[in-house]
Amino acid sequence: MTLRHIILHPDPRLKKRCEPVVRITPELETLAADMLATMYQAPGVGLAAPQLGVLQRMFVMDCSKDPDRSAAPLVMVNPEIVSLSETTRIFEEGCLSFPDIYAEVVRPTEVRMRWTGLDGKTQERDFDGLWSTCAQHELDHLNGKLFIDHVGPMKRQMITRKMVKLKRELDRDRA
């Protein structure tokens, strides 16, 4: 496993729609392992391939926050929403491509997802709570949509300005 660099907003790759995965390969399995290691190290609960500069329809997530329980990582290849609940909830979301920035986002409370696992088999599952929010957030990444696209234009501009400033500071520190 290799820890990979997470792309920060604003970066045009984060706004691109990803291509479907054609087949499960050893390289894709390696990418999934790298994504999980990178997500856990960050630390985060989800990470989409485009956040690492890979424009393919795959994300990983693990919302098991209980320290007394073992990890429950999921790798979703070509995920899609089967159904969404009509009820919604507000959740303060963050994103590994936006360090230390959070915003309240309204999303459906529950989601049913279908995806291909690394074993090549189709899987389907219902998610609620943080799992539902995370699955929807990561799927947005695969469609070139960011969590800040769910907030008003003023808040979005403010966050983008903060990120531009942060990236400038990081570039200056690396120089």
Distance between the termini: 28 Å
Structure annotation, total helices: 3
The count of DSSP E runs of length 2 or more, i.e. the number of strands, is 7
Mean pLDDT equals 94
Biggest sheet details: 5 strands, antiparallel
Helix content: 25-40%
Low-pLDDT residue intervals, each spanning 5 or more residues? none
What is the fourth-level CATH superfamily? Peptide deformylase
CATH class: Alpha Beta
What is the CA-based Rg, rounded?
16 Å
**Any guess at the CATH architecture?**
Alpha-Beta Complex
CATH topology: Peptide Deformylase
Percent range for β-strand residues: 25-35%
Describe the protein.
The structure is a single chain. The mean pLDDT is 94. Helices cover 30% and strands 29% of the residues. It starts with 25 loop residues before the first helix and ends with a helix. The chain has helices at 26-41, 129-142, 153-174; strands at residues 46-48, 58-61, 74-84, 88-95, 98-108, 110-116, 122-128. With 175 residues, the chain is an alpha+beta fold. It is globular and about 45 Å long. The longest helix is centred in the C-terminal third of the chain and has 22 residues, at 153-174. The chain contains three helices and seven strands. A five-stranded antiparallel β-sheet has the order 1-2-3-6-7, sandwiched between helices. It has a single domain, classed as Peptide Deformylase, CATH 3.90.45. Strand 6 (110-116) and strand 7 (122-128) form a beta hairpin.
